[in-house]
């Protein structure tokens, strides 16, 4: 009988506080998914060496963040439980009046919390296990890895950790409920009917002063952040955080009097429909809940900022990797004579073919890249320190076009007496070359071609730097061997290629790796030598750990903060709807139509959700600007993609809670 009563109470509470149960379910689901990362098959690609250390660091951070997340969720659950307890004071007083002791009531609440915990854990874990099956697919798409045969993913470690953490949370809730019941007297519980909020309007002067102070504090905090940046962690940094937080607090505190006074000044709008009732109710709530609205705004700021930065950094790493490796692999080898010590380039395609890897059959395209290095004379600077461009990289036009073809770019053309160039932002020769001087190379006088100036990160040998190269017609270098001995030419040759699209890249790369040992034996024979080999997949794998750490942990925290913010707002609004139900019944008796009453409910919920979100967006725009200044040192933050993904999260999670709260509040008002 006792268990049936507890189960009935839980079922009834599900109707009024479905948002609470959804939050618990989502919390369990997200907690399991991110703690099951170590069981994903795609993580096996990070095993071994430096990559394994990155994976270990990522999983360690997941463990640390999980403790932090569990604390946040614990406060959320206690906060929500406190709302539910206040709503049921009269019910619990009735139980006590009927003869139930405080101990029996505590036992009833214990069973109810147990049912809630089991229900939330069961549904959340089921969703978590289901969602974790797609994490590997999602990760493989991020890193361009071919998906192997599907197999079921289950993490016993994540399951036990979820049960432990949430078990402790629900145990704390049980203790809290028992403590709360033991402190309540029967008279307090029976007289728990909510009274009207006392609307103590602040004077317009004090509201304006608080509003102006909030703008000043926020302006100073924004200026400090933009001027000093995010990396200066000192006393002033915490002063900046304090000013920003205090400015946010003053902003919402000023609304309790300022907002209502502004609308009262427009009597036509104020007395239209139920606007007077709606605005006074909302202003009363802001006056008593401005602290919680401040906390919600700051949590939304964290959710937006963390999610946007993690997604933006992920795309930045993608851009850097693609610039570093525009083709699938490169291989170069030099043979060093054991007798003379001289080095000669190895014919890579022919040697690969002899070793068992046929470039014509295994590749969609390939190119032999030749790079010449030498001094280049600038006649107009004769007799000065700038007369020669020392050790300048020179690319034949055919070589440059072959590289462009591998990268999916169109070829360029040069007149026989013209040269092109790729410019680097940091190379000292860039300033000289910006004047388009006449160059003398191998007896050829070449003029600058303004159409062939490229500001690009030309990757030769998978370099992460951006270098200065001259692009010249092939015939200029046709007799390079006749150059004087005191200015020798150093030639580097690479073979670059792209794998076939109809064969999995991992399969082709495995074949290439299998033939490398035979390639080295054939290339060097009894002599010595050296070789360089790298692939796009390997570079992706090297950055995979960083991408997972940045993206997954960012999304993990972002979703948790977003859920907590939305859930707290939803619970507050549902509680307010229950408080306002008698007032809406009075409005109905006075002739207010149901459409007007519903609009009043929707407006209050909409204002409560949008005001903290709008201020958080303003905060995040300033924060993203400062973050972009830091990230610009290694790349450019993809603000479009990060904003789009963050907006999608807000629409899906925050929007869902907004709609659910509107419908739930309307149903509570109608049913009561």
UniProtKB/TrEMBL annotation:
Compartment(s) of residence: Cell membrane
Record has Iron as a keyword: no
Domain ABC3 transporter permease C-terminal: 64-183
GO cellular component: plasma membrane
Record key words, sorted: Cell membrane, Membrane, Transmembrane, Transmembrane helix, Transport
InterPro entries: ABC-4_Integral_Memb_Prot, ABC3_permease_C, ABC_permease_BceB-typ
Keyword hit for Transport: yes
Lineage: superkingdom: Bacteria
Membrane topology: Multi-pass membrane protein
GO terms for biological process, alphabetical: transmembrane transport
Similarity comment: Belongs to the ABC-4 integral membrane protein family.
Location (main, coarse): membrane
Transmembrane intervals: 20-37, 57-80, 114-143, 163-182, 203-225, 237-260, 290-313, 548-571, 605-631, 643-663
Name used for this protein in its record: ABC transporter permease
